Queue: 2 jobs
Job 1
Amino acid sequence: MEKTRLDRATRKQELQAQLDRLTTEAESARESASADLKALRDRLAEREGALETMRKEEAKTRAHFQNTKALLKGLLDRHRALREQAERRKTDPEAQTKQLQALPSTTVPPMRPSLPIGDGSSRATKIAAAAVILAVCMLGAFYLGYTRPGARESAPGPASRTAAVPTPTPPPSAVHSPAARPPTPCPTASLDLPPMGHSAPATAVSARTLPTINIPRARSAVDGESVKIVFESGLFSSMTNWAAGSVELLRTAARQVAPHLNSYDLIVEGHTDNTTFNRGSPFEDNEALALMRAETVLAFLISAGGLPAESLRAVAEAEEDAPYPNDTATNRERNRTVVLWLSPKR
């Protein structure tokens, strides 16, 4: 009986110990599961944060792509407009020539007073033309006054002083019926002649003072009434990508030319090397690339250089009339640039 009681107590203790052990294991498993669940939740939150960051980056990339697309579209529209304007300018002289040919033969087109006198032959021609016109006017006026009935009798006192002047023989074409001939107005022409006693220069020289431009890594030269600025290195590394130091160089150029834009226009002339394009290039030829380079520099000079847009315009020369010969790799790199022209306002 006593032994049975002891067996039951021992069995009870063993069961209790086993229960405690199971309880401890269950508690440990629960804590481990909680830790694993927390780690999973942290990883999920981290993944969600990374996903949100990727969504924001995607939105920024889309916005940048749209802006770039709009800018490219605007530049292409501007390129097409400039090409159309260039085509119109090419056809305008032909239209003007047709209009001049359609005018009556008696119409004397006015001469441009702003054209400088060139060599001695052009000056002598203008003086001779003026002398002939003046002589014709004087002969016509004298002849009409001499042959008009009662002209000498009705003249005031000064006519008596001119009576001793010998009468010139009228031209043969004026003998027929002089009384019925109407007065012929004297043709006039605007002649830009220098004062008497001063010889004309051998070459055309503008009266205005040409601006002095001193830009590092660039050279300037006088070309007629204009100043040509050529950079010693290319402004673009490829396509329309800036080369190293180009931005600072253009800022200096903007500061140099800004004081002269009241009297001069700044023409940005785009250039390229003579390398042909591969299939799939964004530009159809070198002329389109040259115009885009000129437009890029023009936009930079307006936005970053502060130059007035109404005094700037862009043109394209491509590989033609390049500032350097396209015979070496160095010169081809130097021709990926623009040339600046300061030209008088018209």
Job 2
Amino acid sequence: MRAHGQPNAAGRTETRAGPSVVLLFGDGYRVEQAARRWMAAWCPPEDRLWGAEEVTLDGDGEEPIISALRAVLVAVETAPMFGERKAVWFRAGGVLPSPRFGRGGAEPWMQKLVARIRDGLPVGHHLLITGSAIDRRSALYRAVRECGEVGDYSLPEKPWERQREVRRLIEQELAEAGIAMEPGALEVLVDRLGADGHLVHSEIEKLVLYLGDRRRATATDVREIITVTREVEGWDLADWIGARQPAAAMEVLRRLLDQRAEPIQIIGGIESRLRDLALIRMALDRGWLRRTDRGAVWTDSSEATAAMEGLGDWDPRTMHPYRLGRLAEQAEKFTTAELARAGEAATRVRERMVGGFSSPELLLELLVLQISRPARRAR
């Protein structure tokens, strides 16, 4: 019987190449990139032909699941034809393990895989498991967490946090491609691309080919070649209104209407943003809030506490510092009087919608143009 890897002080079975078992789940593109890095670390090019093996779960029935689990167990137990290192990649696909793994004949095979992970793999052998999601209560998740390493590449649930992650991915892809962006071009790019990492990568490749020898892209380049793959949200419109960019705000509004968003919901989102900006503008003016490199922070003010403690869900002090900083940046683009007038205009639009005005879309367009246009400078 071959010897197995020994757990370290933390209880994890490791080799010189790191943990012997790794579980990755979340966004497909990020998982794929991380998985390839692990496989390259475990099985260098000279060993890849004989030492790397992939098992893909193809199908939802019981038989494909049993076949895949059996193949994984055989693969991690079987020595490579040449050399001593072996890396097995189990591509589980969707949610792992889902209820389909715990029913009927598949359950004993999953239990065997969990037991093998806890007992340790043969020396020099590694197992990589990838999927889109995992039940954190499952025996598989607990076994890998305790005996190996888990990588969570899931995108945040909150839209603004998700969009921040998308922006980071886009910036990373642009940097790797050696492409710089003109002012405003990155915002247009982020606005057009969704959270699918594979699509982001493909669209950046298109941009690189379109630019040719150029290494700097403009907003016009982005609009010419990048496909709109992201469904916009109400907060996208609110962000462009807050940034006082009427052209971008109008483009997002039309995309929302094309997606059949309800006008009454759109106006509700605009009113909510204007309310937030008015509160934050007041806090900035009174010194209750100050901008920082990482967002914005509240000062220790009893006056602010007295003014906002009754706001409940509308209390801006409960916001994440990053989001608060974004809103503070927008609030600084308006005066208190401008925000008051914008709020009144939005209320009038809502009243006309509820009153049965025949074209709520036209009301929204006029409102967005009115409240997002930059302030006129005195001559």
